[in-house]
């Protein structure tokens, strides 16, 4: 149930094993957070949620599928990420180490290399470890232990390695993808992984939009005989025999934990979640929300810093200290005066998303209408409108941006949760990335995918390894389900 990347990955893995698979999706279009729509103007393509895909390129399961054979094409901007500052400088994350070094200065560039060189060198082995549940017998214990020493630190400690603002802000902005406090243990972990992955493979986009990843997975599933039915809302397991014409051997739920409890306890004879599992999932915590704004703009964003005009992704939050304070306020339930904002210029790598005029990778003509993707971190369930705060943060580093806006589409935190029921309170990470939940999500267990009901498993981003369009939550859950089925 659920056709996000994890639901589709689980379905593909089950179909590969020879099972007859049906995917049930409540929405009219499959994809979950991996969809692309014309949200502002005809012909202008906006990613509805997920936009940049470093984890997709390092996903062992997606790599095994050869999605390029099913129509997926990856595209990269000249620079993967830029983090502008008020003084006109910007820290840059690039697959070219020299480009990153040039933006950080000689002293901080050396310190940056000392931190990331081992992680990048061990990227394949490390990904094989961290894209699984924590409780497993590691194949590369030394690599995992070396990474763990740095990953356990608060992000606010990690930035002490650097003397100047560009490096400190660049790392803190990547760490802020955790949607949480940055002064707590393990808050450096996501920053380390995402930055190292950016150096190793970049932060690419899918040609035609993130929907292209969904479409490729759907083609794989179709080639294996699997089917997808949209517009089907399931409230309890008791509905399944009537919907499918038979009782399924396995049920995998690409849902938030609270929805999994409702569905499992919604009626199948003898299928009730054990109290210990239900209590654990009831304690599962959701994190801050995203307030998403999509712009159609005429031409390009007039960034003050030239590197920002070449970067696919941008982090807008000012200094490392500003970002840490803004994230702390968000977690505490307050909208920061200057919230952390992510901006996507996917059209630089993929001009097919734009409309009108002549365009090419790397930029558009003055008359071209380009999509600009952005969201701000806001408190969980935020009831207000942070659109002006998003515009102000862009204008802060690109004076004159307002004059470029042709059309705007807004999804508030509440609207994000309506768009995708897994985004509880607008939380697009499907769960708070606190220290405990980073390690044990959705609950401490040898098999975190099992729900205590024979044949029923959770496969959403609430399970290891967490958020991202990598499909590993679904693939891991499917392996667990298949292992149980073989024992029957």
Automatic annotation (TrEMBL):
InterPro entries listed in its UniProt record: FAD/NAD-bd_sf (IPR036188)
Q: Which domain of life is it from?
A: Bacteria
- Coiled-coil residues: none
Q: Name one Pfam family in it.
A: NAD_binding_8
Under which name does UniProt file this protein?
A: NAD(P)/FAD-dependent oxidoreductase
What is the scientific name of the source organism? Answer: Streptacidiphilus fuscans
Q: What is the lineage of its organism?
A: Bacteria, Bacillati, Actinomycetota, Actinomycetes, Kitasatosporales
């Amino acid at each position: 149930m659920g056709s996000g990347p994890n639901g589709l990955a689980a379905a593909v893995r089950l179909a590969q094993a020879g099972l007859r698979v049906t995917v049930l999706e409540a929405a009219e279009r499959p994809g979950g957070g991996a969809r692309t729509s014309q949200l502002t103007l005809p012909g202008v393509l906006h990613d509805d949620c997920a936009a940049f895909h470093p984890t997709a390129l390092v996903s062992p399961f997606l790599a095994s599928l050869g999605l390029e054979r099913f129509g997926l094409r990856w595209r990269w901007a000249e620079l993967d990420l830029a983090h502008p500052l008020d003084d006109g400088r910007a820290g840059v994350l690039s697959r070219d180490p020299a480009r990153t070094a040039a933006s950080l200065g000689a002293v901080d560039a050396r310190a940056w290399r000392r931190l990331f060189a081992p992680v990048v060198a061990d990227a394949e082995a490390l990904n094989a470890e961290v894209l699984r549940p924590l409780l497993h017998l590691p194949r590369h214990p030394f690599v995992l232990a070396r990474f763990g020493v740095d990953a356990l630190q608060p992000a606010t400690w990690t930035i002490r390695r650097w003397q100047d603002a560009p490096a400190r802000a660049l790392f803190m902005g990547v760490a802020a993808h955790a949607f949480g406090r940055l002064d707590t243990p393990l808050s450096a972990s996501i920053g380390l992984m995402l930055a190292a992955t950016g150096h190793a493979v970049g932060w690419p986009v899918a040609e035609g939009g993130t929907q292209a990843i969904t479409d490729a997975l759907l083609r794989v599933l179709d080639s294996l005989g699997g089917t997808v039915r949209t517009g089907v809302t399931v409230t309890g397991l008791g509905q399944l025999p009537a919907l499918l014409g038979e009782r399924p051997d396995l049920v995998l739920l690409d849902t938030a934990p609270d929805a999994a409890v409702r569905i499992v306890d919604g009626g199948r004879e003898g299928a009730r979640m054990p109290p210990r599992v239900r209590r654990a999932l009831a304690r599962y915590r959701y994190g801050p929300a995203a307030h998403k704004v999509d712009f159609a703009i005429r031409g390009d964003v007039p960034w003050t810093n030239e590197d920002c005009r070449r970067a696919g992704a941008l982090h807008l939050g000012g200094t490392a200290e500003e970002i840490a304070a803004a994230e702390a306020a968000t977690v505490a339930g307050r909208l920061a005066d200057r919230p952390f904002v992510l901006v996507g210029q996917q059209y630089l790598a993929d001009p097919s998303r734009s409309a009108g005029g002549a365009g090419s990778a790397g930029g558009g003509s003055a008359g071209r209408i380009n999509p600009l993707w952005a969201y701000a971190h806001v408190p969980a369930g935020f009831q207000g409108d942070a659109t002006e705060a998003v515009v102000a943060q862009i204008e802060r580093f690109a004076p004159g941006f307002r004059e470029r806006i042709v059309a705007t589409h807004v999804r508030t935190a509440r609207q994000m949760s309506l768009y995708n029921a897994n985004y509880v309170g607008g939380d697009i990470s499907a769960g708070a990335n606190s220290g405990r939940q980073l390690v044990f999500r959705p609950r401490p267990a040898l098999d975190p995918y099992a729900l205590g009901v024979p044949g029923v498993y959770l496969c959403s981003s609430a399970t290891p390894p967490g958020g991202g369009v990598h499909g590993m939550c679904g693939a891991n859950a499917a392996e667990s389900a298949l292992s149980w089925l073989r024992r029957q």
